[in-house]
């Protein structure tokens, strides 16, 4: 169901709307897979690798930053959940932006989220190839090519296979974090390993206090923290292919608090209790550093395997989501018609192929010219991902206002505390953007955004001029 069909859809019953939302896709993702996709979306290389830089900047107060940011992520996901239960579509937040904010915002959101995943796919498959050199001396380009082809093929066989890959990728990440928490708990309580004599919960405040770098240091880590949570919204893109989305999606979204509490807050509390925060360095995984401090040399190999699966998981998600976003845009006349084609298994062949080809080109560019120009593009990932969150929150506010006026049916999964929680989340994202502007390393993201916006604005005007009768370009 496209935006042009929304008004007609509002007159139908809830089950009929949900069924139509499949848009030709097959509902091959079960509850087990959706749950693990939701869990895996919140655990990536941002935690396994990026947390080292954040700890160096903020010390133990990073725990608080993750806790507050995690609460904001929960507000965002509940807002998305409210929209999903109103109308579960694979276009997800691009469709909602198109319906509740305007066709231009749907256009920008769809193409921006597509670019986010293409850029992320490029960086992650390149990273995965780099991780392979830990065990074997093979050309980086060869590993990147093999990984891209395998994941591309898996995404064109069936959506169920994509779900299975994500299930096992997520299982590896979850197992690694739980294992680390249990090992650290053993060190703290039983005192074994080389860190047994110095491990204590007091490490959270003994070395310069809980805020050793001041509140400013904590605030400067917010962009790193939010980057770690990017992709948590991916569960919304699966709506059109989920079995029983009215039941499965709310359950997956409601697991966000405990996921963040265990995998981020819990893991950091345990690691920083065993190893003083001053021992961590930027560019070094805190998991690797903790294993080394405990005298467990095998930890480096374990973490290398985990970050490899995290990178492949992210690239796999990119393959999946880009094809769906391009098809949603095409269905609304905001992208090439060829992207609407589905295979006999209900998979967006052309859109996925186009995105995978760009990922391969990006890997080649990164191999040939790993300089500043490529880094500028990569830095755009954070701001483009947060744009999707902003659109989710604004769409939910618009939807809730119309539903409360009786113009639209109420969602069966209303966001608690809204609209106040939605406004709080928007304000927090605004604070993160301000911190990005202050941080010299992250500021380049904000330079890229206006250029991308200008390109999209011109493209939108050209498409609208060529298709003046297309209702997808008319604000209702």
Automatic annotation (TrEMBL):
It is found in: Cell membrane. One of its GO terms (biological process) is transmembrane transport. The keyword Iron-sulfur does not apply. Residues 7-17 have a biased composition (Basic and acidic residues). One of its GO terms (cellular component) is plasma membrane. PROSITE patterns: AMINO_ACID_PERMEASE_1 (PS00218). This is Alanine glycine permease.
